Amino acid sequence: MAFENYTIKDIAKALNLSASTVSRALRDSYEISKETKKLVQDYAEKINYRANPIARSLKERKSYSIGIVVSEIANNFFSQVIDGIESVAYSRNYQVVISQTHESSERERLHVEHLYSRSMDGILMALSAETTDFSYLAKLMEKGFPVVFFDRVPSQISAHKVIADNRQGAFEAVQYLAKKGKARIAHLTGAKNLSITKERLEGYKMGLLAHGLESSSSLVKYCEYGGLHQDEIENAVEELMEEEYDGIFISGDKLTTGYLHAMKQNYPLAVEKIAIAGFTNSKVARIFSPTITAIRQPAFEMGQQAALLLIEQIESKQNNVDFSTLILPTTLIEY
User: Fold this and answer.
1) Closest CA to 297 of 120, 76, 110, 54
2) Closest alpha carbon to 67 in 136, 145, 164, 163
3) Which is deepest, 37, 132, 235, 294, by most CB within 10 Å?
């Protein structure tokens, strides 16, 4: 049986109303009486009417679609952020298109330019580990294209940004380890150029200083792809085993699980003697072995706030935007 695609004109003809009246009734306009709205909306539901998104976008010069660019959807944190974004987007009648960079700056640029060319109304993005050139993003934004950054944000660009309180979260992690009597605390972290790496490193150093503990560059190991490749974690773990450390603060989900895997596989006796605290939004962190102390980010809320800022910017009639940076608190959870 052929699928029938009804239009506003079909509804208008059936109900002996003008097309403009039907259109306003479907949009719940205050200009239309309650009786007429009910008549139109009941009939639209009866015939399973669906608005034509192409016609709507042409008329309003909007696609009602927003792009999301992240490193990896499988990442616990990013999947929760996306859930938050979608909860807001769908409530405001926006569809989302998700792209993964896998930490590649080249892929990131291709995705952003593709989303722009496909007439997305705006983009929400967390920068890839490789990204150091933001000029293409700045040029798009100069054209009036809305971009909101979250988690991994560029300091060089004026835009709305939503981040966790990375310094405080890192400080609390180190403070927790110090109060447990740990004297040499290592730090496993991501790409040096990322904002989250810099902020969490600052918090780590603040925590060491506050408790009179040694700060040594040999105790800080960088994984430039944030644990996307297990071999970089293996190398970092091997180097750390040359140091005498009794606690470690880890900067991200992939790094935490990768560290546990590397230690249990290669140093099964040593791993039980090292206290671990780190950023993770894993829903199964409580069953990690050995146990870890988690610094949890409000990922869902971050997604919601980022989506609200983007949609507000898309729908604003003002050319000048007062950009803001929202900093949301983290939570320390002891398992």
Assistant:
1) 76
2) 145
3) 294
